[in-house]
Amino acid sequence: MLPALFGRHDQHLARIEQALGVSISSRGNRLAIKGDPAAQATARQVLETLYRRLKAGEEVAMGDVEGVLRFAASDDGGDGLTIRTKRRTIAPRSLGQRAYLEALEEYDLVFGLGPAGTGKTYLAVAKAVSLLMRGEVARIVLSRPAVEAGERLGFLPGDLKEKVDPYLRPLYDALYDMLPAEQVYRRLESGEIEIAPLAFMRGRTLSHAFVILDEAQNTTPMQMKMLLTRLGEGSRMVVTGDLSQIDLPVGGQSGLRNALAILRGVEGIAFVEFTDADVVRHPLVSRMVRAYERHEANQPQRGKPSP
Fold it and tell me: pLDDT digit string (tens) for 123-139?
């Protein structure tokens, strides 16, 4: 268990040392921590949290180390709020992710907003799979707008599945992280899990389902209203998007931006906004997000479409 705690070539220990300014040495099954007393206490807290996760049968990767370090810096251990699926147990890795998981637990309609790499879609899929496994929903419906093809999928080669799969691949990837491949295939065949372009949702009522709309910034206001009003009895819905990455034609109005303006303040809806501090991909991603935000903030607002 200790090799998993230390990480490959002691990478986990090295990251904790770098983040907290301490020195950690191991002798047998004991660790010695040297440094500022407050930093020593924080390092001990981080190591104990990671060790508890390993004892519970959970994996500990570098992203988990980063997450526990974030919580330690905020005086919040980060323990206790997890999602369990067939293949893994997912714990929040940032304060934004923690707020998001709390909202997913409490609300029937949740908007997850913010930059790439914050786990908006991944955590929503994890929650959907966990509820399906527990029998709390009868099916999962995952959807994205196929904006790059203008939803005119007939121009693409192949049958319908081959036409839409490139747009839906991130959703498949998340599913295969949560469930064994044979279960994903079987549940797709039976209809327990459905992955489809947004255009296919029109005219339906989605009851006893967990519905996820990904890349919602690329919907039109009409499409967004159409999907939100599909919510049926016993269903829950998560809408994720990043308003800094709208791919609609110039002058087109984002359905996500429109929905936020209309629905904020409506009882029973949660809005969780992530920042670059919640990015849980490679550390460079967070720094690049901040650089782009600084660059865009300094650009003249020329011909910007009205929200």
Answer: 999 999 999 999 999 99
